[in-house]
Amino acid sequence: MRSALVHNLCDRRLQALAVVTGLVLATFAVRTVPLTRDGIEMLAVVDITGSMNVRDYQRADGTAASRLDTAKAALRELVSQLPCGSRLALAIFTERRPFLLFTPIEVCRDFSPLDGALGSLDWRMAWEGDSRISAGLFRSIEMAASLGTDLVFITDGQEAPPLPSIGGPSYEGKAGAVRGLIVGAGGTALAQIPKFDDRGRETGFYGETDVQQENRFGPPPTDAENRPGYDARNAPFGGTAAKGTEHLSSVREPYLKTLAGETGLAYAHLDGPGGLLRPLLDAGTPRPLPGSLDLRPLLGSAALALLLAVFAVRPLRALVRRGGSRPLRWKKA
Amino acid sequence: MTLLSRFGTTLPLVLWLLPLALLPLVASSQRRTAVSAIAAVPFDGVSRAIGWALKLAGLFAIGGLILALAGPYRSGETVTRTGIGAQVSMLIDRSGSMNETFAGKQPSGAEESKAAASRRLLGDFVGSRAHDQFAVTAFSTAPMLVVPMTDRHDAVRAAIGAIDRPGLDYTNVARGLAMALSQFGAEAASISRAVLLVSDGAAVIDPKIQGALRAEFAKIRPNLYWLFLRTKGSPSIRDKPAGEDTPQAAPERHLDLFFKSLGTPYRAFEAEGPEAVAEAIRQIESLERDPIPYTEQRPRRDLTPFAYALAAFGLLVLLAGKLLEADPGRAERRRMTRSPTPRDITEERRLAA
């Protein structure tokens, strides 16, 4: 009897089963291993000016979605994807400055108020109609620096009024001091900008004469002399009203990329209601967060693989030996 | 179905491996022994039972492991309890003048701006009682919903933390009030609800909007508190203007009159310094003491250990089977020295299976 036991103990499959059992029993003993993960702390600044109402995105069901709606959806998805312990502050941008709604909020524990706040972003919160992107961006960088966070600045890059011929203000801060991302929202084709009345009802689209097509502050452009009706004193910008496409809107990628280069931020295009996580993790400062690693799946999968081998190796080997033919059958006499 | 829907797995895709648990039905971990005629072995119920038990044990072992890897859990539940507290919808003025001191100057040195003082004191107010719920709305030219009604006090404090940032231009109370009122949900009217307006000025409320506001106040019937941060030297709520008594000439006084005419419980606190603000907040806190239902989230329960226990049980049975397994071939080889025991016969179950 004892010799049978010893004989059994020498069996490979018994040994394998013993290892499997050992692994499974070990799952009751192991504790989680503490480790650090990379989280993000960021200030999201969302452009809520009129051009963000342009509907040049499509929802999954095929209906048109505005740039602002898409940006909101992307931020909400981002918040749900960020590792716990990451924090988000939110500001809105219009005129020439960001307006801080709240200082950083943790994305997991306080998810529901954060999600609610992102969901209720509205163009109606805007306090003025101008949209001076560069000024807003520079001040957003200052704000992010004061909060000690990275920056995500979502805009379509359309300056209103348009920049003067000499270009916009230049960045005076230290490039790269605040890390982050400029997100360009909008399609590359020109699209109409919806117009709203003073009670917030949509009344059509902006026409060519509704908006300022050319910035006539500062010195005139160098080619002004060739314009019809040019007069150095009385009509330095030419004698006719400016024509242009400022009443239409597309994402101004070259301009935003220039701004990004000037300020040391990265640039990414908003392709739809998602996809912000990867560029943000690449551009942002990784912040170590306490996390934990559960070792049980490791033990469990090793145990499962070995256990399957115990059952399957013999029959498979036999199959190979037979060259794939069916096993012999013993028939009842 | 409701019982089942409370269970879930973190990696449901792993469950597709579950058919592998049927492997023990076609393959065995026991030895295979060739005999010349299975029909020659007498029918043995115990052997059959052991054979099936081993198959089941294998099924449990593999199935249990796959289940454990999928990460089973029973989802947490939300329990509603009753505590003491109130729903407070804060409406905070973020106009530029809030960044000045109570003396109407730019803050310097140890002086505190009106916004910084209210930030500090309101921040203490939030979270002093565990079951209060807050919503924060900011207003200047336009109302801005900052944080919807929530019991997450960290988030509310983060919203209050932003109020001493540079403000905007105007004080447009009417639309702010409408938004602050809209923060109250459709819960039972027994909850104590309060609107807390913090501002350092007032504005004329458009008569067209007055009617709508009145209707909203009548429907929700919140307690209304106006914390008026008065700059030294500026008119008080109660001062009658020397000239014409119109809303344009004395907006503070007329906003106060409007609030009084609403028919809802209303108190105005005029604060000319941080101490007065603190005192007003203390009073509001003591006034808002009613039972409030709040929800408590019970954490979800990890069921992985149970799946591992199932696997361990199956494995132990399999191990026992392996350990006590007979080897008829080996017995054959040793027949010369000893005769087979009855136990060896019963364990020829593999042949039957």
Automatic annotation (TrEMBL), chain A:
- Domain VWFA intervals: 39-217
Highest taxon in the source lineage? Bacteria
Record-annotated membrane-spanning stretches: 298-316
Kindly indicate whether the keyword Cytoplasm belongs to this entry: no
User: Coiled-coil intervals in this record?
Assistant: none
Q: Pfam families this protein is in?
A: VWA_2
UniProt keywords (A-Z) are: Membrane, Transmembrane, Transmembrane helix
Q: What is this protein called?
A: VWFA domain-containing protein
The organism of origin for this protein: Methylobacterium thuringiense
Automatic annotation (TrEMBL), chain B:
Q: What is this protein called?
A: VWFA domain-containing protein
Bias-annotated ranges (Basic and acidic residues): 344-353
Q: Which UniProt keywords apply?
A: Membrane, Transmembrane, Transmembrane helix
SMART domains for this protein = VWA (SM00327)
What are the residue boundaries of the VWFA domain, all occurrences included? 85-258
Region annotation Disordered: where it falls in the sequence: 329-353
* Segments traversing the membrane: 49-71, 306-324
Taking the record's annotation, the residue ranges forming a coiled coil are: none
Q: What is the organism of origin for this protein? A: Methylobacterium thuringiense
- Domain of life, per UniProt, equals Bacteria
What the entry lists under Pfam families is as follows: VWA_2
